[in-house]
Amino acid sequence: MTYDKLSKLFYKLTTSDYNLEYQKRKESYGCYSTNLTIKGFKRERLTNDTFELFYVNIPELMKLNNEVLLNSSKISSLVNKLPGFVIEPYFNKLIINEAQSNNEIEGVKSTKKELSDALKELTKPEPKNKKFLGLMKTYLHIEDIDPFEKTESFRVLYDNLVADEISSDDIPDGELFRKGYVEVNDGNSTTHIGISSEKNIIIALKELIDYLNDQSHPNLYRYMVAHYFYEYIHPFYDGNGRTGRLIVGSYLSRYLEKYSAITFSYAVNKNKSKYYKALEEVPSPLNKGEITFYLIDMLQLLSSGQKGIIEDLEENLLKLNRINEYLSHDNWTEKANERELLYILITINVFVQEDTELSLANLMTLSKKSRYLINNSMTYLINHDYVEVATHYPKSFKVSRECLETIIPV
């Protein structure tokens, strides 16, 4: 028998067979009960039903769990093949994509340049431009976010991540969270109503913390269930989606690695309809609190994000082989410094972004060479059309289009 959603079986089976199937699932060896309860939701209204969230560890779910773990192992292996100097800028590229996607899902406008500028501001002792600063700082240090042990921690994350971008009308009006009513609307109808009152929000968040600490549940399932329950609680008027996905990311970064962790929102943004449908189907009274299919959808999204990173790394590592081949020719034997600087410029161009401009200071940091030596070497590379001067004040360089076409023809 195909394992179908209870909401689908309701129309296929008699009432007694439907109820029997529900009991079988709840009492099966593969069933995990969460002790997290939700109210039913139907036709834009909360119902009087209360359900405990549960899932069944069916083969499809187990297969996805293993797939995510294998993907993570492959990502770690590929990252270990990267030249040391490209690892940080490559990760920065990924967090810019992730942060932009997380914003786009919630309708917040942010350009890659704005987010890149925010990353640069973080390197300054006293940043002047505060826009998206907290967002980028949180993503940059995602693996350093501590597990959530107190309800106050959710407010701290909110303050660090999104508080600066929240309108004055949506600022929390309780001691930590919202006091009033909140609903989610897709533009046509209400799709969710958050828990009422700050007191109930705090109770539910404490239950969420207890669940996150429950080691009897497999890690990936636990983190994704926690994500749903956080969105169900909806502790803030605005910013719940962004903070909720970052919470998942913080746990994934410790369990898997930070590359898998920061690709979740990017994958969601590419398939928003699947993400929102999965969230909205859970509280249907006909599903009776089963969250199995939501978990399947979330792990599919996570895996698709991982596969995107794997494909990107594999393709770029093939290009890196071409770069190494080109720079191993005899004509570079007596130009070791020039070869190394060109290698850095081309590799950054491949792994991070085309037409990337590196300043003299950047090259000094990446190559560990003196200003004098770099200037001399860059003069040679410019004269032989390998490199162009991108800006004069401050001085920066980029690989010439002709050079790239010669080494890595498109």
UniProtKB/TrEMBL annotation:
Residues forming coiled coils: none
Domain Fido intervals: 149-297
Pfam families in UniProt: Fic
Family matches, as InterPro entries: Fido (IPR003812), Fido-like_dom_sf (IPR036597), Fido_containing (IPR040198)
Gene3D superfamilies assigned to the protein according to its UniProt record, in alphabetical order: Fido-like domain
Protein name: Fic family protein
Originating species: Sporosarcina gallistercoris
